[in-house]
Specification:
By secondary structure, the protein is α+β, with helices and mostly antiparallel strands. It is 18% helix and 27% strand. The strands form five sheets. Strands 15, 16, 17, 18, 19, 20 and 21 form a seven-stranded mixed sheet that branches. Strands 1, 2, 3, 4, 5 and 8 form a six-stranded mixed sheet that branches. It starts with a helix and ends with a strand. The N terminus is likely disordered.
Length: 455
């Protein structure tokens, strides 16, 4: 009978213990989950009669505090205002304008680019700061109306923004096709067709220049207010000769024949008219009867696909940057900040700033491509050691689809060196040298090292 009681007690006791354990876990986890909720960063504006201006107060890790900064700028104000749900900032008010408040500083001296999602994504420095004088405040705004004026059609003209009950222009400092694409999409168009050269349309001299240094983090945005920019009315010496002028895509544009392109690798060149002797090289475009290169700023696989398809290939395997291929005698650099979506029939029909002859200061930032070749093995590679007077030592070079490239030395160790030496017919590696283990003169005739193939 005693044994039976023990069995019954064990039989019912074990599930009961599990229930108690789960019960305790649930109620033990609940405060932690509540603490997780309190860990959310909250922001509010205080000491004001409306919801769009005031002293900035933050709750971080469950504690409320202020921001103290004697140099609080418009970039930081933009981040705060977007955290509050506004489109942009009107201005960063004078530190101390809304009083010090009842809380201690929780952040001091933040430094933001203006595109961050949260003030905690910015850098900030824990320097001593007098919160009685330098507690920061902001004035936010939902008003960033834009329009195009003085163009020959509704989809082109000078870009204007509305501020302080007055329309004004935008300076083209740092303005790119990415920013133009955002502006055109905000206006209801498909995207930007062209960012015109400077002084393309005229405007009255007394018109305000409201913004400059616009930088949009993505071309997929549909609100220019989500982009970082200068403080309102601060022109940095800009004049109306540098006003931004755009042409937006309507979708009804007649097809335009693209300008000719070619890829060049040393003394080899392919422009689509001859037998395909190379499938990789830096990109050149013919403009004003002169060949010029394309800078690699913003260069990606969509841009490379357009170039390769224009030349008759199926597409691109790689978009290369950093001057991966040796330059020829071309001295012009026609394009920069090219923005293709992949459907264009040529690189010149992608969005880009106006043609210029000096986008790149040297050949090293040239854009390059490796086009897809049916049946080719993408990772079929040969290895060589170059730049040394002995055959068993030197800089590691890989030849892949006919293009020389190097190997980055990150984590490259003796075991990796053994593999290379086995490929070269040696028994093993004696030593692996990273960095500049072997001096290599880039002026030598055989210095075509191309891209970094492996890391």
């Amino acid at each position: 009978r005693d044994r039976l009681k023990m069995v019954v007690s064990w039989y019912w006791g074990l599930p009961l213990a599990l229930v108690v354990l789960l019960f305790n876990l649930f109620f033990c986890l609940s405060p932690s989950q509540a603490q997780d909720a309190s860990d959310r960063i909250l922001v509010r504006l205080a000491n004001s009669t409306n919801n769009y201006e005031g002293r900035v107060e933050l709750r971080i890790n469950g504690t409320w505090g202020t921001i103290c900064d004697s140099y609080f700028s418009f970039s930081e104000a933009q981040v705060i205002c977007r955290m509050l749900g506004f489109r942009t900032a009107e201005r960063a008010t004078r530190p101390g304008y809304y009083g010090p408040g009842d809380y201690d500083p929780i952040i001091t001296y933040p430094y933001c680019r203006g595109s961050e999602k949260s003030i905690t994504d910015c850098r900030y420095y824990n320097y001593n700061c007098d919160s009685s004088q330098f507690t920061v405040g902001v004035l936010c705004s939902d008003d960033l109306a834009i329009r195009l004026v003085n163009g020959e059609s509704a989809n082109e003209g000078l870009l204007e923004v509305y501020h302080n009950e007055e329309w004004g222009t935008v300076c083209n400092y740092t303005f790119s096709t990415v920013d133009g694409n955002v502006a055109c999409r905000q206006l209801g168009y498909m995207g930007v067709a062209e960012v015109y050269p400077t002084h393309h349309f005229s405007i009255a001299d007394d018109t305000k220049i409201w913004l400059s240094y616009i930088r949009c983090p993505s071309h997929n945005l549909t609100d220019l207010g989500a982009c970082s920019h200068s403080e309102w009315g601060v022109t940095y010496g800009c004049t109306h000769e540098k006003d931004v002028a755009l042409k937006c895509k309507t979708g009804n544009e007649p097809p335009v024949d693209p300008l000719p392109v070619r890829i060049v690798n040393g003394d080899k060149m392919f422009d689509g008219s001859q037998t395909k002797n190379i499938s990789a090289g830096h990109v050149e475009i013919l403009y004003n009867k002169t060949w010029g290169t394309v800078c690699d700023d913003g260069w990606d696989i969509e841009d490379a696909n357009v170039v390769c398809r224009q030349l008759g290939f199926e597409g691109a395997d790689y978009a290369l940057s950093g001057g991966s291929f040796p330059a020829n005698n071309v001295t012009k650099s026609w394009l920069d900040d090219v923005l293709c979506f992949g459907y264009e029939n040529g690189i010149s029909n992608c969005a880009h700033p106006p043609f210029s002859d000096s986008y790149c200061s040297s050949y090293y930032p040239d854009a390059g491509v490796i086009c897809s070749v049916p049946g080719s093995e993408r990772f079929d590679a040969k290895v060589y050691l170059v730049g040394w007077n002995q055959s068993n030592a030197g800089l590691l070079v890989i030849e892949h689809i006919g293009v020389n490239g190097t190997v980055c030395d990150d984590s490259f160790d003796l075991a990796d060196g053994d593999v290379v030496c086995h490929m070269l017919g040696y028994s093993h590696a004696l030593e692996v040298l990273g960095g500049f283990g072997f001096y290599f003169d880039e002026r030598r005739q055989d210095s075509n090292l191309g891209p970094v193939w492996i890391d």
